[in-house]
Fold:
Amino acid sequence: MTAFDVERGDAIHPGKPVTVDRYTGGARINHWITAISLVLLALSGLALFHPSLFFLTGLFGGGQWTRTIHPWIGVVLFFSFTGLFIRFWRANLWKAEDGTWLARLKDVLTGHEERLPEVGKYNAGQKAVFWGMSLLILILIASGFVIWDQYFAAYSTIDQKRIAVLIHAIAAVTIICVWIVHVYAAIWVRGTISAMTRGRVTGGWAWRHHRKWLRELVGGKERRS
Amino acid sequence: MFPPLPNPTVKPTPAQFGEQDLTRRSASNVAPPARQLTPVAKLIDTSKCIGCKACQAACLEWNDLREKVGFNSGVLDNPLDLTPASLTVMRFSEWINPETQNLEWLIRKDGCMHCADPGCLKACPAPGAIVQYSNGIVDFDHDRCIGCGYCIKGCPFNIPRISQVDHKAYKCTLCSDRVAVGQGPACAKACPTQAIVFGTKEEMKQHAEGRIKDLKSRGFKNAGLYDPPGVGGTHVMYVLHHADKPEIYANLARDPRISPIVELWKGVTKYAGLAAMGGFAAFGFLHYLISGPNKVSEEDEKKAEQLTGSDVS
Structure:
């Protein structure tokens, strides 16, 4: 049996130090298209969210351009994230140890990883980010279409548009908060960013943070040989 | 009869109000203006309207707008709705009065009401694209409009329309350019029955009182003035023969006010949203300061080497 959490392309390269392939080139390109879209969406969206941030429209060539381009970037993000979802959803399914991990969030934040259960390719925090992003992107694209007046004004009533614009704003604020958690965790947990740039992590990183995944990879290799 | 405004002088005159008289400016704060202009108002007397559409023609003419040739939809309303070019539209309703069994032909000139508390301005994200002068006129500055359509969501009367040509919002300006040089709106000038009159808001209320008294003496016991308090009153008011039933006039709102959803969106969501994002960022910053980076140790690398068999060779 192939281990549940091991994704296509994951592999161990023994040596000193051990390196572990975590993300394929395709996954990384897919991730960065999504990431750039999300940042551009946040900047253009925030420009219209609060007057003090309206100056951000300058980045997009003015208010008219910001209004024009924002929904199109949203469409790009939706399809790009769909790619990520198809790649990652299986390894993000909730497991028994995830509840324990989440209950010991205090130990996570205070750096007592020895008190945490061994986790697979993703820990409960990463899974929460994954499912949070998935749900929020669905909400944002759906509410976004309702307020995309240039093409879809005729398909909803003004009352529906009012509700949609409120939901869109709240979901956008929430996804930016989730994004902050995602980026901060990548910076705080050293050795993580190389996973999404070069595609690899060190064996020590995998041992420390995703031991179950590492064991599954080792087990898989043993069975193959 | 309300004395019509005299014909203006042909000598060029400077504008009597401008940027310095703004009481509100969308997505910005303005200093309270040094002087208070006399509030103005347009009064539309539905009982005197004959449905000639001279006001519509005058509006197109003065604002140099062209409506594309439409088609007959089987009713007198033409065009059927407000458009980026038709800033005012006569709405015709046939209503059978249940008390008299008389067919009453109710004609209401629809257009921007120039609310004292304008929902469009509250919703607008573009600084200065919507402004309100201390005389009560709410105006759009098209150079600043970004075409997002938020004003449509903010408006309790469903008035602004976005042009598919230049992607900017349009609505009645109360002929702010004419009023600034001492004239009344083009529609009032063109109205042959004085169903539309223009003056100070006080004068208009007084004039309306006389009209309502007259209507009551003719049996319209519910005649009254439409100056809805939910939006702080309006600078376009109606005299209605059935003021107790505004909705029979092509669904005129009974108690218009800015939608609570819009208030929530433009109120607490804006501030709570910024606070939440700032809070998450601040937590990350503080956490990093206090606990430092989470580093992989030498021991972790050794364990991995042992697990993968790298230490044997």
Notes: Strands of chain A lie at 11-13, 19-21, 200-202. Chain A is about 65% helix and 5% strand. Chain A has a mean pLDDT of 94.
